[in-house]
Amino acid sequence: MDRENLRPIFWEGSQLRLLDQRQIPGKKEWFIAKTADETIFAIREMVVRGAPAIAITGLFGVVLELKNIKSKPDYSELESITTRILNSRPTAVNLRTALQEFHSLLTKEFFESNEFGLFVQKAEEFAVNVLEEDIRNNISLAKNGLSLFPSSPSKISILTHCNTGALATGGHGTALGVIRSLRDAGHDLTVYADETRPYLQGARLTTWELLEEGIPSFLITDSTSGWLMSDRKIDAVIVGVDRVAANGDAANKVGTFPLAIVAKHHGVPFYIAATEKSFDFKIRSGKDIPIEMRSEEEVTRLSFLKKSDGSPILDSGVIAPKEVKALNPSFDVTPSDLITAFITERGIVKPSEIGLVFGDLALEQARR
Ligand code: MRU
Prior knowledge:
Helix content is 39%, strand content 15%. By secondary structure, it is of the alpha/beta class. It has two domains: 9-139, translation initiation factor eif-2b, domain 1 (Four Helix Bundle (Hemerythrin (Met), subunit A), Up-down Bundle), CATH 1.20.120; 151-367, Rossmann fold. It starts with 8 loop residues before the first strand and ends with a helix. Bound molecules: 5-S-methyl-1-O-phosphono-5-thio-D-ribulose. The record marks 162 as: Transition state stabilizer. Belongs to the EIF-2B alpha/beta/delta subunits family. MtnA subfamily. It is an enzyme of class 5 (isomerase).
């Protein structure tokens, strides 16, 4: 079921309405993008984030660019905006996949034909389809995830990282989508949500979604997973992904790799929920996945330290010496041997089965 109240992206014909995820949980505000540049801003500044949501937003950026063309359409301008959109965030492959599919369907010849109006109409239809397809695929993979757990209502505890819910996708969620399905299937769920330093997608967004859905949860710090798995029974870790290489190595929010090691140590299954749009067969192993480096300020600043009257102790939220250098890779790569299985819309797929299950996709990617 599509969670309309949590949907982050609405196409309104001449503008894209995005739930401003920088403001959550404080307030629910909308960011309106009327140009491709505004969608690039929204992606780079994390108004919208999460691999599938970034891809959908980028596609609508192209559509806005096409709709805003006033003079004779020039293909090189379309190419240049597509490249800028593609470079807005480099790790998640979904954006690249979406833009490649766009270009193989909507060709240069079509663009330069006398049917530019039809080209724009088809581009818009394509973007709307990708949005709707993402929701459908999320719902399918979430249902497939049920097969990994008992069929009769049971007590189940899940640990998750970052935000992989409706907010990160067209509107249902991958890992959080599986969690929703488990709840809908009548299980007695407890979810442990990693805060996900430094950008706090877990603390700010996942807990918000879980509360909106009435799913019992605890927020934990990222370094709590070792204690948690040795103190109480965790049935599974389920996370999302930004890019899966051909050998099954998977890039996801930084902190995923150590979480997988802790899970392996405790014998807890480690699942990655993803649609086929996250698989990149052009990349042989995780070593080739580009890792986005983000600003030092995300690591060195916080603003939660308050005096008893509520005023900030550190006006600027600085929590580290001014001179300190910080490293802020936004993602890490979990080697395939730590991944129990991928939960996909095609079913449950072990890392060693990827080539078999997604053989057609690998061929298609090689052709593009
Ligand atoms: O930096 P973010 O918030 O875009 O990172 C998001 C993640 O790492 C998610 O786990 C991933 O995109 C999968 S979302 C379905």
